[in-house]
Amino acid sequence: MPYCNAARHQFHYRDEGSGDPVLFVHGFPLNGTMWLEQIERTSPQVRCIAPDLRGFGLSDPSTDRVLTMERHADDLAAIMDVFGVERVDLVGHSMGGYVALAFAERYPERVRSLAMVNSKSTADSEEAKAGRDMTAIKTVIQGRAILAREMANGLLADEASPWQKGRVETMVEETRVETIVAALEGMKQRPDRTAVLESLAVPMVAIVGEEDRLAPVGEAQTMVAAVSDGTTTLIPGAGHMAPIENPDAVAAALAALWSRVESRAG
Ligand code: MLT
Predict the structure, then answer these.
(1) In this structure, which of 108, 193, 206, 211 has its CB flanked by the most CB atoms within 10 Å?
(2) pTM, whole model, 2 decimals?
(3) Cβ(187) to ligand 1 under 6 A?
(4) What domains are defined for the chain?
């Protein structure tokens, strides 16, 4: 299993394929294996780097009481430094998209393109913040299995298969409880980063599940309206986990984005 030390932390990662480097950033409370379907489909053309964020998956536990989007962004830059990778096509799913925007704000020159998958640029409403506090308390008191069941049933499209639900449920169940609590607080504290998109100078796509209730199409439209070179791709038959629910359509949307980068360069 590959591990690397970066920013004084041990990270687990996948690094497959060769070509232009793509950095896949997973959502909450998931891990880098959420990208397996995309790695299978895209690694024949590009280099896929998919780390487990600090505290998640097989990366070391985190001592941070709050796992901020900025902290994860700095970790990604440090991981890229270890790999000697200067610029990436950045792909973020949901919380990974919040991290991607923090990364684009801090390291704009290191982003070659941006894919926001089932994600948004806006901050939490007061109601959403209160919901996060409740989720943290419930998870500590009742255990993460209930959260895993709720997320698997609540986030995917109605037509999601038992296998797809199981895949999500397992990832959530495998996430450390303290990571869940620290990440909920980190997401709660994240600012609105729509302005980061306004200064984004590279091609961008918002990939949105037709049935995503957490990051619905209106959020994608807000992001795309802010950028100078952006498109929205609707993924049929998908809710909040489009890369798992409809992997072919997501891979096609990513390939289309990367070909826009190539045609700009050429
Ligand atoms: C995710 O999928 O990363 C989270 O559900 C995002 C969020 O809770 O805002």
Answers:
(1) 206
(2) 0.98
(3) yes
(4) 3-265 (3.40.50.1820)
